[in-house]
Structure formats: C-alpha cells, structure tokens
Amino acid sequence: MSAATLAPAGAERTKTRLLEFVKRHGPQTAQDLAQRLDVSVPAARRHLCDLQDQGLLEARTERPGGRGRPQHVFALTDRGEAAFPKTYSSLCVDVLRHIEGLFGAGAVLKVLDARNAEIADRLRTDLPAGLPLGERVQILVQRLNEHGFDATAAQDDQGRWVFTQRNCPNLTVARQYAQLCSAEITLYTEVLGVPVMRDTRIACGQACCHYRVG
C-alpha cells in the first residue's frame, strides 16, 4: 500500500495528508496535526488510532528538544515509511545487472544464495528441527509477514501444509531475475527441512505465490 493509493475522499484524504505531514516534518503531537490539518483534536486522534491499527504509525513519548515535559508524538513505522515511493528496487536491479555483466549470470545466483544462507542462519533459531512441521510453517509465515509478504498457512484436503504469499515486496527484481525466486525455494526447503514446491508465482502475473510443503 502507498500513501497515494489511500482513498482520495473524506476521512481517507485526511489520513493521507496526515501521513504526508509526518513524513515531511517528523514525529508530531495530535494537537500539532489537528492544527496543521484544520481538524479538531478528537478527529485527529481518531485518524491517528486508525493509522496505528493499520501499522502505519506508532506512538512515542519524547521531550521536545531533549528537555521540557514529555509529550506523546506519532511517528511513521517501517510499514508507514514503505508506503512512500522508494528507489531501492531499481537500485537492486542495477546492482545485479552490473554483477551479471562483470561476472556472468551464475554470479547473481551465488550472491542470492549467500544472502539466503545468512537469512537461514537467523531463521534456524526460530525453526528448530524438533518442532512439528505445521508449527515451523506457521512461524515461517509469521516471519514472512514481518517483511511484507502478506502470507497465510493452512492444511489442504490431504492434510499437507500449504502457504500463500499474496504480496511480493521484491516484485520489480523478481520479474527481471528469476534467480531470486529460485533462491527463495531453496531457502524455504532448507529452513523447513522438507521439499517445498511452488505452484503459482506473482512475478509471472498470477495473483499469489502458492507453495506446497513436503
């Protein structure tokens, strides 16, 4: 979701303006935001609560200028920051293109494999082999959601675990470098300790990435 994709009318327009103001000027109090947006303080608080519920803002207690009485301010979360346009994906594509040009196509996969090895090391703590497979799948899905994949897990009619990613945070890169998706399968197979198969892929124009486990 981006700030620009919020509904353009009424309350949603006010929420968009609120997010944009916090982005430009940093953490703000409800009173400051109400004054800037020309709405009542209770109305500003309602919008702030809605944006907190969406994970776009967080409340903090700060001292203005490092001194004075503490006050409650509202700041963008990582998800809120991600709501605004970034050039990270185009930068990543450029870097991978240069790696491929300098060292060959195989070098891209080596880079992605090295990255996945580092991620796998971090995940092993959360996914010990002694846990039942279903618990490991659900923990993996939780970790994916922390990184914006909008994932869910369930068991199919045969009792086999499946999981779905309804968003691809790396879509721009994945569309140009299929190696990213290949490395992803390798990572999931390694951390779950069983084969993982992908049936559909967002990078190929399908609605989601759907995986069968085991």
Automatic annotation (TrEMBL):
InterPro entries: ArsR-like_HTH, Carb_Metab_HTH_regulators, HTH_ArsR_DNA-bd_dom, HTH_MarR-typ, WH-like_DNA-bd_sf, WH_DNA-bd_sf. Residues 5-89 form the HTH arsR-type domain. This is Transcriptional regulator. Pfam families: MarR_2. Transmembrane segments: none annotated. CDD domains: HTH_ARSR.
